[in-house]
C-alpha cells in the first residue's frame, strides 16, 4: 500500500577547490630568476663561447661574441643576448622573466598560453581558484547550473547525465510532483513522501479529502481522484 521512499536523492556531490596555473608559473619563475645571468665579456678575458642556437644563431656566427655584446647564461648554456628568446613568440627575453621547460625557454605569456590549465567550458586560462568536476577544470564562474546558469561553486548540486543542476532546477525538472499541491518532491533535507501506484504526495499533503486528517501511517481508501480515511469511507457507504 502506502510507501515511504527517501533514499534516491543521496547522490549529492561536493566541489573541491583547487588552485591551478599561477602557482606553478610563479614557482617556475622563482626557481630560475637568479640563475640566468646577463653579462658582458670582459676585454682580455675571452673565454669559450658558443651560442646555444647554433645554426639558428641570430648573429650568424654562434661562436663569436664581439666586444660590447652581452651574453646570457643559464645553467650550462649560453646565448647572445638577442638569441635568448622565447621558443614560441621568438621575442628576446631581455630583462623579463622566463620559464624553462625541457630545454626550451618560454616567456611568461607563451608559457601560460601553452601549459596553464584551461577551463573546460570557456577554454580560457584559469589563474586562480578554479574548481574541478568530473576531473575537469572550470572557472568558478563557468561552473553553472545546466538549466538556470547560476554559479554552483560552493553550492550543493545534483548531477544528471553528467550535467550539474542547482537544487531548485533539479527539483523543477526531474523530481516527482506531489499529486495534491503539484510542487516537486525534492528530497532536500530528507523530505518524506508517500507513493501509491503512480501518484506521490508530500507527507504534509497526504490527508483525507473529506475530513482533512493526515493519512500518513494510516490505512486509506481511494475514491477516484481522492484519498479518504476509512472512517469517511464508511460514512460515504451509509
Ligand atoms: Zn646567438
Ligand atoms: Zn613568447
Ligand atoms: Zn571558464
Ligand atoms: Zn538552476
Ligand atoms: Zn504537496
Ligand atoms: Zn476522513
UniProtKB/TrEMBL annotation:
InterPro entries: Znf_LIM. Signal peptide: none annotated. It comes from Henosepilachna vigintioctopunctata. One of its GO terms (cellular component) is Z disc. GO terms for molecular function: transcription coregulator activity; zinc ion binding. CDD domains: LIM5_LIMPETin (cd09430), LIM6_LIMPETin (cd09432). Residues 55-116, 117-176, 177-238 form the LIM zinc-binding domain. This is LIM zinc-binding domain-containing protein. Keywords: LIM domain, Metal-binding, Repeat, Zinc, Zinc-finger.
